[in-house]
Amino acid sequence: MSDKDPLSYNAQHKPSRDFDTRTAYLENELLIMKPKRWRINLPIRDYRFELEDLVPALAATIGKIVMVAAVVAAFAGPLGLSDAFVVENVRFEMLIAAVLFVILFSGLLNPRANLAGTHGPMIPLIPLIVASGGHPLALGLLVGFFGLLLSVSKGGSKLMALTSDGVRGGLLIYLGAIGLISQITALNAWAKGLDMAYIAFVVILSTIIMYALLARLEMRWLSIPLGSGIALVIALALGAPFEFVTEPGMPHLSPSYWWGETTGWQMGWPQFHHFVSSAPFAVLAVAMWSPDFMGHRVFQELNYPKKATKVLMNVDDTMGIAAVRQAVGSVLGGGNLTSSWGTYMIPAAIAKRPIPAGAVLTGVMCIVAAIWGYPMDLAVWDPVLRVALIVGVFMPLLEAGMQMTRSTSSSQSAGIVVFASAFVNPVFGWSLTMLLDNLGLIGYKDRGKTLRRTDRWVIPGITFIILVVIMALVGMLPGIPGLISH
C-alpha cells in the first residue's frame, strides 16, 4: 500500500494536537496502523516513534540483562564457569538479540511479532539439564527445531483459541501472585543481608503509593522508569552500598571461541548423546511457550481499542522468530533460552503502543548497555531490579487476570488453574484446566457443546498427556522420581 493511498497509515496519521487527549491520539495510531508481514516496515511511512515507546524499551533492556544473566548463571554454576564468563556471555547475547533479531524482525520485517526474549520458567530446570548430560547448544538447536514445528503448524494460535478467558485469567493471577511474592521476598532478603531491613520496607511502601497514584492518573505506563528511579534514590539515600564494576568493552564474537574445548563454555561442540539428553527438556520448553505467549497477547487485547486487530501480536509468527533466534543465538555461542519478551510486551500494551518503534529503541538500548557496561550494574542492583519486575510485570499480570475472571463460571476455571499450578507448575495447571474446561466439566457448562470433537478433547487431551509424560521423565511431578535424574 503506497503512501498516496488514502487508507495508508501515513495518509491517515494526524498530529497529537488534533486530539482532545493523549490516549485518543495513541488509540488512533493503533487503529490506522497496517503493519506488513514479512515485508519492510519503515518509520514515518508505517509507524512513528513516541515518548511512550521509551518506557517499554527501558523495561525490556532491564529485563533482558536480568533474565539472560539468570539463565547463563544457572548453566555456569554446575559447569564451574566464572562470573566473568557470565557477564561476557550476557553482553554477547544482548548484541545477538538487538542486532540480528529485535531491530531486524520486530522493528522492520514483521511488527506483529513480539520480541524474542528469555524463558524464565526454565531457569530452575537448568541444573538438572546439565546433570542429565545436556549441552547448551544441543538444547538450543532442539528448542529451535520444535519451536519452528509449532509455528509452521499454527499450533500456538490453535492452543490459544482453545483456552477460555477463565483459564487465561487464572494463569495470569497465579503467575502474577507468585512473581510478586518472590520479588518482595528477594528484596527483603537482600536488605536483611545488609542489616538494613528497613530499606526494603521503605522501598516497597513507596512503590505501592507510587503505583496507586499512577493508576489513579491513568499513567501506569510510567511505573517502571519512575518506580526504578525512586527505588534507586531511596536505597542510596538510606545508605545501601553500590558500585559500578562492569567496564566498557566488547565480548568475544567468534563461535569457535565459545564452543572451544578450553575457551568459552569449555564443552566443545555437542555430540549425539547430548541431543538425546536435551530432547525432553527442549520439548517442555516449547510446550511452555503457549501459555507464556498467550498471556502477553492478552495485555494488548485488554488495553488496545477493540478494532485494533491488525496490530495484535501474531502468536505463530512470534514463535517462529523465537525459534530461529534460539537456534542462531546458540550456534553463535549464546546461553539464552528464548521465549516471548514479557518485560517489553506488558508495558508496551499498557502504554498503548504497537510493537515496532519500541522494538527499535530496545535494540539500541541493549547495544548501548552491552558495550558501555555500566548500565548492566544498575539494572541488576536489587532495588532497581525488584521494583521494575513488580510494577512492570507481576502487578499487571495480577490485574489482567482479575479483569478476565469477573463471572462465576470464569472464576471457577481460574480457581482450578491456580490450584493445579500450585500443585505442580503453570504448564500442568494450564493443560489440565484447558481439557476440563473444553469438556464442559468446569467453567461454562455448554462450552463443550460449541466445540468440535477435535477441539473439545482430542487436542487438549493429547497436549495434557504429552506434557505429563515429559514432566514425569524430568522429575517435575510431586512424589514421582524422574526417569532422567541426577
Could you walk me through the main structural features you see in this protein, from its secondary elements to its overall organization?
The chain has 486 residues and is mainly alpha-helical. Helix content is 66%, strand content 0%. It has 21 helices and no strands. It has helices spanning 9-12, 22-32, 54-79, 83-109, 126-131, 136-152, 155-161, 165-193, 197-216, 223-237, 255-258, 272-287, 289-303, 315-332, 342-350, 355-372, 374-379, 382-403, 408-423, 426-438, 453-473. It is globular, with a radius of gyration of 22 Å. The relative contact order is 0.19.
Keywords:
486 residues, mainly alpha, 66% helix
Distance between the termini: 57 Å
Q: What's the helix count?
A: 21
Mean pLDDT reading: 90
Low-pLDDT runs: none
Largest sheet: none
What overall geometry do the principal axes of the alpha carbons give? globular
Any idea what the radius of gyration is? 22 Å
SS-based class: mainly alpha
Q: Count the strands?
A: 0
Beta strand %: under 5%
Secondary-structure element string:
HHHHHHHHHHHHHHHHHHHHH
Percent of residues in helices comes to: 55-70%
Q: What is the compact description of this entry?
A:
The protein has helices at 9-12, 22-32, 54-79, 83-109, 126-131, 136-152, 155-161, 165-193, 197-216, 223-237, 255-258, 272-287, 289-303, 315-332, 342-350, 355-372, 374-379, 382-403, 408-423, 426-438, 453-473. By secondary structure, it is an all-alpha fold.
